[in-house]
Design a protein that fits this description.
The complex is a heterodimer of chains A (about 350) and B (about 400). Chain A has about 350 residues and is an alpha+beta fold. Chain A is built from ten helices and nine strands. Chain A starts with 11 loop residues before the first helix and ends in a 5-residue tail after the last helix. In chain A, about 55% of the residues are buried. Chain B is α+β, with helices and mostly antiparallel strands. In chain B, the strands form two sheets. In chain B, strands 1-4-5-8 form a four-stranded mixed beta sheet. In chain B, strand 6 and strand 7 form a beta hairpin. In chain B, helix 1 runs parallel beside helix 4, helix 8 runs antiparallel to helix 10 and helix 9 runs antiparallel to helix 10. Chain B starts with a helix and ends in a 9-residue tail after the last helix. Classes of the chains: A alpha+beta (about 350), B alpha+beta (about 400).
Chain lengths: ~350, ~400
């Protein structure tokens, strides 16, 4: 929860400009795709230096007490630029832990003070004791800690190398981001544990909204670059962007992206205020945004034509990122199944006849 | 009082008023009712709205109920939708298109004659589209020739909403064919009882007859019924077409959002027991619900921008496309869920908008939103050309 008063609130558009400046200066989005991985660490160090991780932490924890509103544009810009860094794991952990009792606050304070980097790991109910493997956790290889949360059980903050936890970096089709395979094989709660119910809803909603904004940003950028390409590409003596078949597809993507952006905005507002329905709305924002991104990126390759099939051109960067965004932390259908009952029950509650 | 307080107060006021004035059996009365029943219900409801001042929030402040801000108008439409009130079908063109055209472009005499009459129930229709002028409205060919103090008009109009019940018509005619097609259009007010008018309702795929064709054979229209100047009617028509300022979409979206429960009910075989939901159906409902909430959020942003005077080019087209696609998918899902029952249930509620409770009717009717007021294809042209800056088609 935020404790900042109105005067202390940072204008989200200032955060957007700050993110744009930083990313324009530092980012070569293809670096990791050409085997140059050091850029992620440099960018991550710069972001730490700028104090962005302090944004969401309350002032009592030494943070800036900002609401999610200040983070949304950052996530969107990261998505737009296909950034190799994954801020939302640590951010979501701080956001969730700081309102999860004394122990939670202590952990959140430690994360802020000691610049721990956290990868959240959400396990299905009943899996904390036995061996359970998550194949692709973003940011896990670089994380100093894992926030392991068992649905319906306990939440534990464990060091990356703690006994009972194994993190192995994995190569995926999305070379632009780092992922780790995380295996949890029976865990001793050395430094205590928290009821998962106190942590999970905020943790999850934050992660989902971060993904939603990342996807809205990526999809919008992908559309912009696709239209630019079509304006330049001449066939039959005219730019292919003048063909109605292509114009109409581009228009449909624009509509889908704007709908996703609107829902992400609405959901972020509800989440920042913890207003009624924030949890379901965050999940829905993620579904819509990830679907819009995947559809856009899939079509981008087709609209680029032959060069879209080459490694040299960029549409495949968007496609791979979009497809990964859609599944990390739970497939779209898993997300739908999780909220379906609440969506339906709520709808029945408005029955008028 | 701040704008926010005014809006909140209006909402409370409307809710209370609806509690006392909404006929609670109107749906039963209208289900499968005939045309006279529909007209009677519309007139009764319109009378109540006028009396309360809720029919004219957008009129100038010297009129009862008038002078309300766009924010208040939005709130009013939302509350009427949320309260499950009948739509203002029969009087919508009168209250918005006709009245706003007269307010902005009419003469004092025209206003004095028609605005009070509209509040007493004068029904207007729009004579804009023609068989050869749909998306390309400016290609209209209905001819008007001036002879002394009258215009003599011949031609054919189509898609006039409820034109067969109209007393008056907002008519676009061609008075000059020599220049660019937009330049020779004139805007007239036509009394529907004039000699030479033949109105034929169009039977739609729903079986309903909401639209009409109007055949004009040397109809005489007095020159004092000219709105704006001769050959400058295209400008006036733009005022007519923008008169409802997105409020229809606000109402329709709200009505659709508030009928999501009908989908859930259909998905549970009418039981409302969500444990009976099929997994794939439940997933579809989650997606439809997400799109509905997104639509609501996008609409709220557009209306806020409109209020602040910073609407961007193409915003309205993005919204209309989103709504059109959603209306089709929403009703198609209901249709799928109901199976045989949807094919056999042919009774529906007249004048309800998106909550007839008849999935087949609503599904068929959703084509309206995909075609009328600028088809999806036209909206896609606008979005690609004016928002994404893709090259314009060379049009004739």
């Amino acid at each position: 929860m935020t404790t900042a008063t109105d005067e202390m609130r940072i204008d989200p558009e200032e955060m957007r400009e700050a993110a744009q400046r930083l990313l324009a200066d530092m980012l070569d989005r293809r670096a990791a795709w050409e085997g140059k991985n050091e850029i992620a660490a440099t960018l991550e160090a710069e972001i730490s230096e700028l104090g962005w991780y302090q944004l969401i932490a309350s002032e009592t924890l030494g943070g800036l007490g900002q609401s999610f509103a200040a983070l949304a544009p950052v996530y969107e810009e990261l998505g737009k630029s296909l950034a190799p860094v994954w801020l939302s794991g640590t951010m979501a952990a701080i956001d969730a832990l700081q309102s999860a009792g004394d122990l939670g606050s202590d952990w959140a304070a430690a994360i802020v003070e000691q610049a721990w980097r956290v990868a959240p790991v959400i396990l299905p109910h009943g899996q904390a004791g036995g061996a359970h493997c998550l194949p692709m956790v973003p940011g896990a290889p670089e994380a100093t800690h894992l926030l392991i949360v068992e649905e319906g059980g306990r939440a534990i903050l464990a060091e990356n190398a703690a006994p009972g936890v194994s993190v192995v970096p994995v190569q995926t089709w999305d070379l632009g981001r780092s992922y780790g395979e995380v295996e949890v094989v029976g865990l001793a709660d050395g430094i205590g544990s928290i009821d998962a119910a106190l942590v999970l809803p905020v943790l999850r909603a934050h992660l989902e909204l971060a993904l939603a904004w990342d996807s809205v940003g990526g999809a919008g950028q992908c559309l912009t670059e696709t239209v630019e390409y079509m304006l330049g590409r001449q066939q039959f003596g005219r730019p292919i962007a003048s063909f109605q078949a292509l114009k109409h597809r581009a228009a449909d993507h624009k509509v889908a992206i704007e709908l996703a952006r609107s829902l992400a905005g609405r959901a972020s507002g509800l989440f920042a205020d913890r207003a009624e329905g924030w949890s379901v709305m965050a999940a829905q924002a993620r579904i819509l945004a990830c679907d819009a991104y995947a559809a856009m990126a899939e079509d981008a390759i087709q609209m680029f034509g032959g060069v879209g099939f080459t490694w040299e051109y960029n549409p495949h960067l968007f496609l791979k990122r979009a497809l990964v965004n859609r599944i990390i932390g739970g497939s779209p259908d898993a997300v739908r199944d999780r909220i379906a009952d609440e969506v339906c029950s709520r709808a029945l509650g408005t029955r008028t006849v | 009082m701040s704008e926010q307080d005014t809006v909140a107060r209006l909402r409370t006021e409307v809710r209370e008023w609806l509690g006392q004035n909404l006929p609670d059996n109107w749906r039963d009365r209208q289900r499968g009712d005939d045309i006279p029943g529909f007209l009677a219900m519309q007139r009764e409801w319109f009378g109540k709205l006028v009396e309360a001042g809720y029919a004219t929030p957008h009129w100038p402040s010297e009129w009862p109920g008038g002078g309300r801000s766009l924010a208040e108008q939005i709130a009013l439409f939302e509350e009427l939708a949320r309260g499950g009130a009948p739509r203002m079908s029969l009087f919508f063109v009168s209250l918005y298109h006709a009245a706003m055209t007269l307010v902005e472009c009419g003469t004092d005499a025209q206003r004095a004659r028609h605005l009070p009459a509209i509040l007493k129930g004068e029904v207007w229709c729009q004579g804009f589209s023609e068989p050869g002028a749909g998306s390309d409205l400016a290609a209209l060919r209905t001819r008007a020739e001036r002879k002394g103090d009258r215009y003599i008009v011949s031609g054919q109009k189509i898609w006039s909403t409820l034109g067969h019940f109209a007393d008056q018509c907002l008519l676009l005619v061609r008075t000059d064919s020599s220049g660019p097609k937009q330049a020779g259009i004139t805007f007239l007010l036509m009394d529907m009882k004039s000699k030479g008018i033949d109105v034929r309702p169009i039977k739609q795929i729903t079986g309903d007859e909401e639209f009409a064709e109007i055949f004009l054979d040397e109809v005489e229209i007095p020159v004092e019924n000219l709105v704006g100047k001769e050959n400058e009617g295209w400008k006036v028509a733009q005022v007519t077409l923008s008169s409802e300022r997105g409020l229809t979409l606000v109402e329709l979206t709200e009505r659709m959002a508030l009928s999501l429960w009908r989908l859930v009910l259909a998905a549970t075989g009418g039981s409302g027991d969500t444990s009976r939901l099929d997994q794939s159906v439940a997933r579809s409902i989650v997606d439809i619900s997400a799109r509905l909430e997104a639509m609501r959020a996008m609409l709220a942003t557009l209306m806020a921008n409109r209020i602040a005077g910073r609407e961007a080019v193409g915003d309205a087209s993005i919204l209309k496309l989103a709504y059109a696609r959603l209306s089709r998918d929403f009703t198609a899902l209901g249709l799928r869920l109901q199976g045989y029952a949807a094919m056999r249930d042919t009774s529906y509620v007249l004048g309800a908008g998106y909550e007839t409770g008849n999935w087949m009717f609503d599904f068929l009717n959703s084509y309206q939103y995909n075609i009328a007021g600028g088809s999806n294809e036209i909206q896609r042209n606008i979005v690609s050309e004016r928002v994404l800056n893709m090259p314009r088609e060379k049009l004739g």
